[in-house]
Amino acid sequence: MAQKAMPGTSPEGIRPTYMYKVVLLGSTSVGKSSLAYRYVKNDFKESLPTVGCSFFTQMLNLEVATVKFEIWDTAGQEKYHSVCHLYYRGAHAALLVYDIAKKETLNRAKLWLRDLEKEFLPDEIVIALVGNKTDLAAEREVTTEEGEEFARTKGLLFMETSAKSNYQVNDIFMAIAQELLQREQAKVSAPSPDGRSTVELGGSGVRTGCC
Amino acid sequence: EYEEKTGRAHRPLSPKQNVRKNLDFEPLSTTALILEDRPANLPAKPAEEAQKHRQQYEEMVVQAKKRELKEAQKRKKQLEERCKLEDSIGNAVLTWNNEILPNWETMCCSRKVRELWWQGIPPSVRGKVWSLAIGNELNITHELYDICLARAKEKWRSLSTGGAEVECEDAGFSAADREASLELIKLDISRTFPNLCIFQQGGPYHDTLHSILGAYTCYRPDVGYVQGMSFIAAVLILNLDTADAFIAFSNLLNKPCQMAFFRVDHGLMLTYFAAFEVFFEENLPKLFAHFKKNNLTPDIYLIDWIFTLYSKSLPLDLACRVWDVFCRDGEEFLFRTALGILKLFEDILTKMDFIHIAQFLTKLPEDLPSEEFFTSIAAIQMQSRNKKWAQVKKMLIFDNR
Description:
The structure holds two protein chains of two kinds.
Chain A: E1 4-6, E2 17-26, H1 32-41, E3 53-61, E4 66-74, H2 81-84, E5 93-99, H3 103-119, E6 126-132, H4 144-154, E7 157-160, H5 169-189, H6 202-205
Chain B: H1 2-10, H2 13-22, H3 47-100, H4 104-107, H5 111-118, H6 123-134, H7 142-160, H8 175-189, H9 206-219, H10 229-239, H11 242-253, H12 256-262, H13 266-283, H14 285-293, H15 299-307, H16 316-329, H17 332-344, H18 346-349, H19 354-362, H20 370-378, E1 383-384, E2 387-388, H21 389-400
Antiparallel strand pairs in B: 1-2
């Protein structure tokens, strides 16, 4: 797995620090920027449309490790696809975000999944399907079961969230951190042959050329 | 005890008034220093001490007066500077209106005009200058705008009634695509300069912005609506009448650089980034090496800056001044501005890692100092080994083929 682990950088010496690139993908105005903003600043405001990509960082001090998230919040408009699809290169986790009140955004999330499956092996990336805007329950077009079922068949993490009312936003990022750490553990007990260098800045290092 | 307290409260009043009356050099400000005698219920100061205190007091008053004089002079100077600035804007307006605009063709390229142009175009003539500088290569008339707008309105109607497909000549662009575009325009309008509160639903320019973007998707269905456009249209609306804003908008987007970006022509965008990097390395070699080391490619920050012509990332008044010179110098100024920003923050940026640089550049500080900013841009040389921007770009395009 393309992890950039830097064990021993914490002052305690025992607790390792991991840096993970997390990319937010999904249709326009499903709430990608709002999810990132809620998670990092614990606040909600109307976001400007993202042009290109915007960036957030968040640090998690967990019992077993320190996790640093590099969050890449991508532009949602389909026309930006050719630019943005390269932004997920070298990602360790991806959030496929859809709007529970807009059916077609789930279809778009499924397309993103297809893209990711072409780029990554299943154990190379943690993917979560996120149904955002549960505050719009009255306008719901996608049932929880439908999202859940799709995530289950594809082996994705799944959660419904609301960036506006702060519902399960922390939880989904925490679930991703746990999953990433679990895979880290599994890797230690069965070391992979390629033994990626610990100094290489994986996330940005494997990016080639533009985007 | 109670009596004592209330008594004390009354008595000191008279000596205080006495002192005030006796002073012929009272300080001007309300925070004046007042020399108090001891309260009457305490023994008076010895004459010597009283004299000393009076002397100290006088010195303090003199100091205070000096300070106040200095501040008054400073205020006067600020006022003079403001008047001078207003005068120069007033003069500039006169020069633009009476000398330059009537003789545009002959004067627009003169050195004097170019210098005045760099100082920033006064807001009252800005729209006119932009219109003239952008030109109307596409020969769009007000009538054509009306036709495009009527067509857009028809589509909105059929969308909202969920009616049958509108037949039109721009076949080949899927109805779903167009529908998504129109839907997206609606969404983005409310997200365009939300702080200004004029483009939002119910705001004075909401419909204007809606109309221009809608008309454009009908005028150029091959380009359609791309996020970022709403900001460009909004800035134009702030400076021009609707139809003229549409003409400027369409012609602006028709420029090679804007076409490459808004059509998301990835190959051509890469060429622009590569040309940018040539000048980046030439002007800021240290920072360039730092960016390379951190794998920070120009797309990370340039996409937002170029797509919105800085109107989303810079304070609006600075963005307008960038537009001024962009209208004068063309696309190369957009890249020169980018280098100016990098130069201005070079010291901080060299200390940052990938993610922090990316974060910083995609969300620039809101209190950018305008004079320093333009000085920084002015210091950027758009010349690399005797080659100018256009030559470097041409070479790179040729190489790619």
